[in-house]
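All the exercises in this workshop are built on plain-text protein records. A record pairs a protein's sequence with a compact description of its fold. Read left to right, the backbone structure tokens trace the chain's path through space. Once this layout is familiar, the rest of the handout is easier to follow. Here is such a record, shown just as it appears in the course material:
>
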Amino acid sequence: MRLYTLSKRHFVLVFVVFFVCFGLTVFIGIAGPNVIETSVARTDLNNSLKLKPFNLSSPPLSTYNQQLWLTCVVELDQHDVSLKKNVTMTVKVLGVVKDGSTPYVNNQVHNRTRLLSCAQKCSEIIVAHLGYLNYTQYNIFVSFEDLNKLTYTIQNITFTWKTYNPTFSQVEIWFRFVFVVLTFVVTCLFAHSLRKFSMRDWGIEQKWMSILLPLLLLYNDPFFPLSFLVNSWFPGMLDDLFQSLFLCALLLFWLCVYHGIRVQGERKCLTFYLPKFFIVGLLWLASVTLGIWQTVNEVHDPTYQYRVDTGNFQGMKIFFLVVATTYILYLLFLIVRACSELRNMPYVDLRLKFLTALTFVVLVISIVILYLRFGAQVLQDNFVAELSTHYQNSAEFLSFYGLLNFYLYTLAFVYSPSKNALYESQLKDNPAFSMLNDSDDDVIYGSDYEEMPLQNGQAIRAKYKEESDSD
């Protein structure tokens, strides 16, 4: 691996390049357009209008708007009111076609109960969400049955249309395309660098990189432009499937590497891989089920939200949290045990330190992005329906894609074979054999000769050639 030939300065340079590339995507995102485009339809109320439906016409739409939300905020005449009340809402969605007619969407009227929660001001209520757009304009009729029973006077009801900004959609297409091309190039270069080696000579990190890089290509979704050409839920479902598949493969990679680096020789499927596949498989199954559940129900009912089926959703959320906690504890156990057992082994210690340091940086940045994006509402009952409306700018989108892409590119560079890998593979890929040939004093890495990193293998090779010549 190239990891063995890097000096301290090279490691610093690798991290600097990683941060520069990630920072560049963040700055581009900050300068980019807002993700969500809003259009406010303000309705003044009087006593005669409270029971009548509101006829709301959306702004003109195109495929670049991707999705459509209709939200409403109830404004009371008193601002210091604390109120929680279930409100019955009737919604009828119609699509406007070219000839001006307005056929029903799903040909039915939807009745839903929403919680009106007010503390100083009332919280936003999601009236309807369309995951894909079949029409260039929609008319939505909304009526509330229980608003006239409130003990407080309603001053206004403000309806807001939310869609993806068409400019952001174009930025998203181009950046996904750039990442697809970069990932394809990195994958080809990594595969080309391993062509001279048999698979049994590959390190466990190299084997996993040969799996993760193609999955990263799917994570960037080369089929994403299809969502602008086909009016269907399938491209969006495909994107969710690819993302969950890659993220769960990355979780499995961490478990296998931190465990496999301690286990030399044959790694049995039953004892080594099966427990890890079981834990990560449950996470993948939960995430895919949540995505399919929401998408399928919204196709049949634009007013659907998870909190409508609160019992099943709460059970799924608890299940997901339990499995995620189990995964974190298992991963921490493997990391602590690997570091305690292998910290004195020259080359393995280097592999552990680099992977742990880079992964820790990525996880910290991911947690910061999640908090800035969703705040404390990540685990609320209706968080899934509201996730896409919490974007503030393109930086929050590009930061995730840039972070994971550059993380994999960095690992691919470090884990690719070095120029002398053919000579040194037998010496350094096996930690036990490495310890027999190298002592801590023999390993030049970390000594005063920083300009000559890890040259003990070259010395052994030169000594071997001298003995061969004398014979």
Summary: The two ends are 32 Å apart (CA to CA). Residues 310-342 form the longest helix (33 residues). Strands lie at 36-44, 54-57, 68-76, 82-96, 104-119, 121-122, 125-130, 137-144, 154-164.
